[in-house]
Every structure is written in C-alpha cells, then in structure tokens.
Design goal:
single chain, alpha/beta, Fumarate Reductase Iron-sulfur Protein, Chain B, domain 2, 5 domains, 5-stranded parallel beta sheet
Amino acid sequence: MQLTDFTQFTGSCFNGEPASCACACPFGLDVRGFAEKCEKGRWNAAWKAYKTAVVFPAVVADLCPAPCREHCQRADLGGAVDIPGLEKAAIRFARKKAEGYNVPPRTQTVAVVGAGACGLSAALNLALKKYAVTVFDRLPGWGGSLRDDPRFGEYDEEFRFQFSAVKEGFCSFVFEHEVTEAELAPFDAVYFATGEGGFRLEGGKYFSGGPCAGWSLMEGIAMGPEASKVIEAFLMTGRADPILPHEHAAHCDRYVSHRGVEPAAPSETETEAGAMAEAARCMKCDCTDCIDSCIMLQHYRKKPHGLAREAYADSAAAPPIATQSLVRQTYSCTNCGRCNAVCPTNANLGAMFMLSRSDRFRRNTGPKAFHDFWLREMDFSAGEAAAALAPKGKETCSYAFFPGCRLGMSAPGLVKKAYRFLQEATGGDTGLMLGCCGVPALWAGDLERLQSNIDRLRGDWERLGKPTLVYACATCERTLREYLPEIPLVSLYRKMAEAGLQPAEPSFGEAAVFDPCAAREDSELRGAVRDLAAAAGTALTEIGGGSRCCGFGGHIQVPNPELFQRFGEEAAAGAEAPYVVYCINCREVFRTRGKECRHILETYFGSEEGPLPSILEKRHNALVLKQELLKEEWDVDFTPETQPWDALRLAIPDELREKMERTLVSVADLQEAVWHAETGGDKLIGDDGWRLASLVKSVVTYWVQYRPSGEGDENSFEVAAVYSHRMKWRGAEIR
C-alpha cells in the first residue's frame, strides 16, 4: 500500500486549513489564531503573530483593503468581524519589542533596489538573517509611494521601529542615487522592488518583486519574507526559483456549516474589553462536519488527515518491530457513510477504514476475532439456510424475492407473508433467493469471501433467468448495486405501495421514520416507506439533523461494545415519537434499548409477538423458514442438519443469557463445548463439582463453567459462567 491509497479519501478535506478569511489575506494571516489571542486579551502574542505575518503592522493595518472581511462567514450572522480593528487593537495594547534572529553573520551581500515598503520588507528579513544588505533609492529617503501619504510620519516611525532590530552593519541605505548595473555587479544577489518600468535585469542572481512584477502594495510587502527565502536559497545552493505571490484568492469559498450559531452584533475595538468582545464574534471557522456528525470520530478525537497517515503507517507496520496504532478505531467504524454525506468536498473516511480492514485481512495482521462470529453467520446464511428457486413449475421468473439473511432470522413470518404478497402481485412469477448479500465479509475486509459469495449469487440469478430482485434490506441493495450492478433491483416497499396493499393492523398515530444508513442516498426507497406509513394513517415527522447510525453496521459490537451501545442510545434519542423502521437490525437495536418501534412490514403483514430471538433461535428461524417455504410453495422436503449436542439442555440464568447475547456467544457453542467435554474431551473438575470446558472455533475460544443438573438426566446441565477470548488454548502445553 502507498500513502496515496489512503490519502485519496481525505485529500479534499480542508479541516485544519486556513479559514475563508485567511485564504483571502495576501499575508496568509492565521485569522483564527490571531482572533483567539485577541479574545483572551493576549495582546503581546496577538501583535507578534500579526507582525510575523505582515512585517510592518502599523502600515498594513492602516492601508490594507481587508479582503478578509469580504469572506468573513460571520457576515450573515451579525456582520463581518472587524479584523482591521482587531489588528489596530493588537498594535495599541501590546508591549511591542523589535526582535531579531540569533544567527551567525553571513558572508554574502545583497542589493535591494527600491526603498518602498516592498523593498524594505525583503531588506528587513535578509538583514535580520545577517546578510549584508544595501538598499538603493533615487528618492531622498525610504517609503516610496507612501512618502506622499498624509500619515507617512506614522509609517516612517514603523519602519524605524522594525529596523531597530537589525544589528549595526547589516543594512545600509543609499538615497538620491540612480544605481547602475555596474554598481550591482559585485553583489551576490539583487532584488528589484522598484515601481513599474524599473530595472529589467533578469536571470541568475537577479530577482524582482513589488509593482515592477505587477504586484499590489500589500502583495509586495507580503512577499518580502518569501523573497528573502528564495534569495537565501539561491545564495546557499545556486538554485534560482521564481518569487511567486501567495495564492490568497484560492479557497475563499470554503465555507463551513454554522448550525446553531446565533447572530451577534459588532463591538467597538477602541477599548480592550470592546476589542476582546469583537474577537469573540469570530467563529474560528474550520470544517468539522464529519467529526460533529460521527460519534466514533468524536470518541477518538483524531482528524481526517492524521487518520489517513496513521492508516498508511499501520499498513506498513511489521510487528514486533513496528506496531499498529489505529486498530481499535479502524474496526469501530460502522461504514454508515455519514462522513461522506455531510462532507462539503466528499471526503470518505468510511471507505478509508474499509480499505484498511481489507489490507489488514490480506496481510493477516487484523484481529479476525472481531468478525469471526459474523463470518460464520454469513457462511450459514449463504450455505445451509440458502435457497434459489423459480416459482413451482417454472425454470425462470421475472422477479425473485431476496429478503436478506437477517430478516428471516429475526422475523421469518414477515418473509413468508411478503413472498406470498409478491407472488400474488406478479401473477405467480416471483421466485425466491434466500441467502446473504456478503456485507459481513466486506465489513471484515475478507474480499475473497465476499467475491465468492457474489459469484454464487450471480450464478443463482442467472439460473433463474436474470429476474429483477425484490429486496427488503437497504444494506443488501447497496451491496448488490456495488458488486452486482447488472442485476435490476426494486424494493419490496415500492411494490407494496404500488399495489395499494392495506395494513393488517393499526399503525402508530404519530411516528418518526428512522432511515437505515444504507438508504441515506436512496430517495426512492425512503419515499416508498413514507408512502406506506402515511397510507397506514401515521402522521410522520422527520428526525432532526437526519438519522443517526444505530450502530449495527460494520459489526463494531465486539471491538467496541461501549461505542456500539452509545450509537444505539443516541439514535434512539433522535425523536420522542416512536419509530417506523424498515431495517430489521435497527428494529433489534432499538427494542433492546427500550425504544418503541415497529418495522413497516409488521404494520402490513402483522406483528410477530414475543421477545427478540436469541442467536440460536435466529439460526433455527432461518432453517424453519426455508423448510416451511420449500414444503408449502414447492412441495420440497428439507431437513436441517442436526448435531449430537443439540439434545443437551442447559439451564442458564437470565442475566448470563443477556451477557451472552451482548458478547455474541451462542447457546449452541456451549452445547458443543459441554458435549465434547462429556464425551471424552478435556475438562477441569473442581472440588465443588463445577466443571470447566473450552471450545475453539476458528480464532475464538469459548469457555463454560457447568455441572450436571442432578436430576438424573445425563443431557441436562446447569451453567454458572461463560466467556470468550481470542487466545487458543492447547491442553498439551499446560504445565
């Protein structure tokens, strides 16, 4: 991986870059930092920052046309900040001291032709670096065009003050003199800062700036430090680079969001208190839209550009010599796409994190245990629980229902009723494709497994005659559109709305629609769900600021359970009204957090009563769904595979069951561990009769503390404790 592989996702981000006002400034003044110092009354620091940028503060503060104010984002919220007034306040209230550089004297000499403000700016910077500078001018003194200004006395005082920092012998002035080319020949470098039509010697040691280069007065002063750097580089290396003015007009249009900012009236800047109040009106404009919109980015407090560099560094890490620093955060991204949606320049941190995951998986440096459970669930859904059939008596079909894996696991009855609706709506021309879109592999970074699943889906689709897939899951739609763009798609909800389907039971009187992340850009899908909710008599409201991610995406539950909980809680708090949802995962997240919600399919096909199914029950539901649909619609028998440990009965306390669900430990894993331990496998037996057994599944080891129930039933056990971790336990190595 190259650095550009990661920075391509953040290259357009302007977080941390100059604000629009600073972009307009010919001096590149950090207006945010300057205003912050003024706001705090740190006048010495404010003056020093201003002086460093503009060279001659008193001159610039008085004469600069202040293009910064034209691009102040406070303009529509009470009026542009009086930045020139703050500049003058810093000059007025600071204890000023002209300071030089503690550097050794240089042997080279430099001539500056023109003692106007532009030439003086370059001469001052070179002299402070202890180059021997001689300034020539045909006028009787310095100042150039400013000598005719009524306030020249103040400007003259400013020039004298700044040059007072130059050590004796490093800057001399020759006035009332028309310098000749012969006089300039001995100098090691020459800088022309004359008016228009002045000297035109070019190349080699000759440099030019100011009006003779077509610059304005402010540009000329601003380029003094830059000219000194270019000349110094020439004296040290012989390389003569052009002196180019700052692109101060670029990026002035980079305005940022100011949601919730109240208008504020301007304050006078003549007093310290007034100037501090005016500085406080500065909104310190910086784009933080992605950070403000993402719980995960707020949690880790890292900026986009830094994240891209860290992701690249992780890709080049070679443990144990170099370690990875962005692991937990990489796997805490829900891939919701909100960062990209709110970014004014379309930066995409989610895509960058997904690239990092796939890179880690490919190099076998990622923590596979974070996604092991979900990959096994995907293999189950795409394997034993999968099916692809045309309608009975047909080899092909015009439509095929693809409900996705999770809907059938959590609410199999809704899948059956939805399929029968589609059969009726299409005149019996709807087939069935049970399976998984492959997004668990995508979120894990296992692109090989993802491609294998995509190839399998493509094969099933082609065998069914390339029908239009009717999807029920927005995540399935997004995945299929990206990896199988040749497949035509339509939402189940649009088909329901077009058919004028009537609700099976009363809906909420008032509710907010919670859109899943994958539907954010799908106006057709979102509109269909709203049409159905309205047709059911629900008065709909929208969630302020747009829907938040429920936290399910990206499978962050294992790597960051606390953040997973926070995602769900904040999403549930988006509106006081109950939620209408159309993602079965959102429904599960909200129900576990006590948020009243209902899947739109429940309104039209009837609610499925009872508590949320457990991990084991979800697998059972998927198999029973396949078994019943195949028998009832195709008269095909399907017998799910059984295991010898299925007969074990485990008495598990409710609190422990809840913990198991949170940590993604299935009762089936405990049954298997106990069965192996009781049929000749390893186990530890304590003096109190409790037994400890383990089970290694791929990269995760499950532990269970249990004992026989004492009821005379060899298949009945009590469970006291359960936990899992990423270590592999090898009994032969225990000492």
